[in-house]
Amino acid sequence: MKFVPMAELLRDASLRGYAVPAFCIWSMEELAVVLRVAAELRAPFIVMASRFEFMLMSPAMYADCAQSLMRHFTVPAALHLDHGESLEQVKACLDAGFTSVMLDYSARPFEENVAGLRQVCAWAHPLGVTVEGELGHVGKADTVTAESEGDSTLTLPEEAARYVAATGVDALAVSIGNAHGQYTRLPQFDFDRLAAIRAAVNVPLVLHGGSGTPDADLKRAIALGMAKINVATDLTVAMRRGLQSELALAQPRWLPHSLNLAVAGVIPVVERWFQLTGAVGRA
Fold first, then answer.
1. How do residues 250-261 score in pLDDT, each as one tens digit?
2. Single pTM value for the model
3. Which residue numbers are catalytic?
């Protein structure tokens, strides 16, 4: 099966009251595991790559490898550029065959953010590619996470309406008390703000920083319009624990064996997120 536009997945999620988990995937071994779990649970999901994955392989190489794996499965999935840094990076991902792209200009002035996303939509929509923008800025929950920069600024509902209308984005990432990385204390979501944003815009909403969110808060956010939940830290922690356990052995195993065991550690994490978001059985 080929990757599909992310808008197709989010449209169904919005209509049927669940969310689609979006997983940061750092290796093709990890992607193969997530695809197997998704196929077994008949759950749609989103593969996310960013500048960190592109340190290992170019967008074109990443897309080619991911699409090769996808041909072995029938589960619906999208291939998404997460936190695109520049128009040039977005263009490279469009050329590579990504089915969804995000240009993250959330830390820039409103008008610059609008202009950048309007240009991305002009490129992407004729190709059938979904576009995600971010308004307000989702910052960092810890001092380790490389994703995003600085503190959060909350999304203003009235600005959200203007932003969606001016850009034409298909999905909107919002800041309501969420953050990237590993929470050092439980996040305090502003659900009144989320409800106001949902009433102001007619596109699916995106929650960045899903890892560590209390289950009840996550389900409430989904009920209020969050159709895409980004998950990175939970996968990183599971993978790192597996690798550390293997490398700590007095008699190291053959490396492929160790890597296989470490990657298998993400299985319960992925299963949990499919259950939490209500995505099981939706494919």
1. 787 888 888 888
2. 0.92
3. 82
